[in-house]
């Protein structure tokens, strides 16, 4: 490797790792804020939170890499241009494309690695992340007994506390407990002046020690179905233990989520897509066969000739023939309504199948477009950094955010158009790349010819370009 390549790669490595870490952190915080309502108040523990952070950080790698390449390319070549190092290298007879070659090779390696990562690692991370997130969502909130509010989070019990004292709120005043755990239909009501709350056996059980209270027990009478026996007991101290097993995190088998499109690699996605295509074709062929019974001919004379003969030969009045015509009209209207209902249901089913097929195809295209985005961002960032000649974190961050937002919006639009079948899935998924690729090639052309893309000369030449058609119009007139 030549010294020039080492110089450029060393200048690129630092900004790349720094920007990649920053972008990963920003996107990870965005993910966690999105699901914050599902995580707060459930006492998940550091282990579960660490797993979610790890899985989500893996998922956002394909999103972070293009932005990191764009920003680091801008910073690298902007700094080289700002310190006149690009000018010195060009003076030695080295072209800009030769200067960009080492970072281009690194970007190609990153694109290939991102494709492998997106096809192999991301589906597994999706499976683990979203299965764990599902279990977290199903978990109940942590024990939270509030003052003056009936709490029924513990199965079979309803607890109300008038006042909570102490640093941790473990001293209780005015305790009321409804016990519905007896399967015989009896109910217990426990009232206490005060109490103390604590955990037992490593947090698996909740202990409630009550002082100066009464217990009311109501039991159905065996002699009278409408009657009941009522028992009252006083106590000075009573210890009640509640199981907290319902607050634990129960893990669901990950195999139940394995068929989701986000958990599949390219081969599996292709298999599911082919199956859905075959199903759509079968549904369309069966639709024609299923419509045939609705188009059988009615065995009635609708020409009026037989009716005229009957009136003439058998002296039948026209009024007696009217019910036949009404019957024909009614049956035809009923069949038309049945056909419309059947076609509406069939069209909706076919539309849903087509959309589901489009969703699987979108997941397949994502693995390619997210990898190609790395090369696209390099093609935009490196020449643009050589043109603007500004390093640091100011201008490069601003320019990177602008282009990444444009790319992200175009990607979302193309994906939505493909999912809603406004346009084919392939062109929709490649929409952002196809629109921004000419921009990157234009920047590369300008950088090779040392054109100041953002110089004020462009603003000075623009009015002349706008007036040129008008001058031609005046000459013709």
TrEMBL record:
Keywords linked to the UniProt accession: Cell membrane, Membrane, Transmembrane, Transmembrane helix
Key word Transmembrane helix present: yes
Keyword Hydrolase: no
Subcellular localization: Cell membrane
InterPro entries with a match to the protein in the record: LptG/LptF_permease
PANTHER family the record matches: SLR0882 PROTEIN-RELATED, YJGP_YJGQ FAMILY PERMEASE
Protein's name according to its UniProt entry: LptF/LptG family permease
Annotated source species: Hymenobacter sublimis
